[in-house]
Design goal:
The protein is α/β, with parallel strands linked by helices and 451 residues long. It is 41% helix and 13% strand. It is built from 15 helices and 15 strands. The radius of gyration is 22 Å and the shape is globular. The structure holds ligand PL4. Ligand PL4 binds at residues 59, 83-84, 150-152, 175, 177, 228, 232, 260, 262, 291, 293, 299, 304. Residues 59, 83-84, 150-152, 175, 177, 228, 232, 260, 262, 291, 293, 299, 304 line the site of ligand PL4.
Length: 451
């Protein structure tokens, strides 16, 4: 692996992605210019917010580097521990429900019941099922749950709803869609090359020193606080006491928390709530987004939901839920009816068991990866209540480590700096993979990276 073969160089540089990313981009830009010489200009001004984005969105860049490595090393048996994408089939009971739902669309009765444009907020049966299965014992009701095509899309639409000029806070590191979508919506005035942070966005560092729970006082003046638990990328799940602190501060300061629970099914620790609405008062200050992507292997099928509690109000007393309803009515045409049939099947007893087994399988993968790195002599975090293992390469640049791992083992990980400046010095390993690939990855890593 690596030695003696063609290499995709990724020497690390300043604020943006690694040099190889930029070299290829420059080549592409030249090619594009050459092709479009006739229409050299238009009257359309570029959105200045788009121009602020420092680099390409992280995950397509990782996918591109993987492809480039394979082109340069055609015999490489690449293993991806990079993008958190599910690999195992959708559980059979869920597939059966989806197939029956699709088949019904081929009948007159089935089509008149669920064909055509559906409700923008989702089928009420599914909204009710989600409220019952995931929010029982909390103040959340079926009309608070809005079904969608996934959390990432809801995050972007949410920022659109809140509008430009918001004070945003994020955990650092965090899922890059929070910051990138905030920048696109005009919530930053530009990138600061010295700090490697977008201006006007508050970064709350989460590292081993604070047990990956941030100093919340940094966000006291923020309007919208993104908080993800279990966290992507660190794998840290927040405890009840920590979430109580988060909610209490938001109630006190009048901020909203956008709580990303995309991985809550991976929580095993009873002291870590699976939904923010277990915390008293959360319904007055929290929006929670969740998804079937990682629970049931729906990353390609696309089905998620976001909760806007009735009690959530803007400073003028108007309803946030009502605005979200308006937003979805305007910008979304409802989740696919086939995906919603699959979602309903997820909520049956057999579907719930299928999801539980699937999550358990990925958690075993995470345990294998975590113990592998530990046995190799590294400090490792996460991986017990989350599908991500966060490996410390203290003092080293994470893009450099990413490149070295790829070149020596043909394994793709994700460089920690891609999730924010506080992620530098770490790499993230995703536990989404076949058992064969995870075991093989463990073998290769041990061979080349043991201390
Ligand atoms: C690559 C904290 C993965 N192209 O599938 P969704 O839209 O319901 O959920 C996306 C999502 C939402 N919230 C968190 C996530 O981590 C994710 C998925 N993140 C990753 O490797 O970090 C997939 C990334 C995908 C993307 O950009 O979302």
């Amino acid at each position: 692996m690596g030695g003696g073969r063609a290499r995709v160089s990724c020497a690390v540089t300043d604020g943006g992605w690694c040099a190889c990313v930029r070299r290829v981009s420059v080549r592409r830009t030249h090619a594009r210019r050459a092709r479009t010489v006739v229409n050299a200009s238009s009257n359309v001004r570029r959105n200045p917010n788009m121009a602020q984005l420092k680099a390409g969105y992280l995950f397509p860049e990782i996918a591109r580097i993987r492809t480039a490595h394979l082109e340069a090393n055609p015999d490489a048996k690449i293993i991806s521990l990079g993008i958190g994408d599910t690999t195992e089939p959708i559980p059979q009971a869920i597939v059966d429900g989806m197939v029956a739902g699709a088949a019904a669309l081929g009948t007159k009765a089935g089509y008149s019941a669920k064909g055509g444009y559906g409700a923008e907020a989702g089928q009420m049966e599914l909204r009710a099922g989600l409220a019952e299965k995931f929010y029982a014992g909390t103040p959340i009701e079926k009309t608070d749950v809005f079904v969608s095509d996934g959390s990432k899309c809801d995050i972007s639409r949410m920022l659109q709803m809140f509008g430009t000029g918001r004070k945003i806070a994020v955990q650092d590191p965090s899922y890059p869609a929070y910051v990138d979508s905030s920048v696109i919506m005009g919530n930053s005035t530009g990138f600061d090359d010295a700090t490697k942070q977008y201006q006007n966005i508050t970064y709350m560092p989460c590292n081993a020193d604070n047990d990956f729970f941030p100093d919340l006082s940094k966000a006291k003046n923020s309007e919208l606080i993104f908080f993800c638990s279990p966290n992507n990328p660190t794998g840290a799940a927040a405890t009840r006491a920590q979430l109580t602190q988060l909610v209490n501060q938001a109630l006190e300061t009048g901020s909203f928390i956008i709580y990303d629970a995309a991985y809550s099914a991976f929580i095993g620790n009873d002291d870590c709530p699976k939904t923010i609405y277990e915390i008293p008062g959360a319904e007055k200050c929290c929006i929670e987004t969740c998804s079937f992507s990682k629970y049931a292997g729906f990353t390609g099928l696309r089905l998620g939901w976001t909760v806007f509690p009735e009690a959530l109000k803007f400073s003028d007393g108007s309803s946030v839920r009502q605005d979200w309803n308006r937003m979805m009515g305007t910008s979304f045409n409802g989740a696919s009816n086939v995906a919603q049939a699959a979602g309903l099947a997820c909520l049956t007893d057999a579907g719930m068991k299928g999801m539980k087994d699937l999550v358990a399988f990925y958690k075993e993968n995470a345990a294998i990866l975590k113990s592998t790195w530990e046995e190799m002599g590294y400090k490792v975090y996460g991986g017990t209540d989350a599908p991500y293992v966060w490996v410390s390469f203290e003092g080293r640049d994470s893009w450099e480590v990413f490149t070295e791992i790829l070149q020596k083992t043909d394994i793709v990980v994700t460089p920690g700096a891609g999730f924010g400046p506080a992620g530098n010095g770490y790499v993230r390993c995703s536990a989404f993979g076949s058992r064969e690939n995870i075991n093989e990855a463990a073998r290769r890593l041990k061979e080349k990276f043991s201390k």
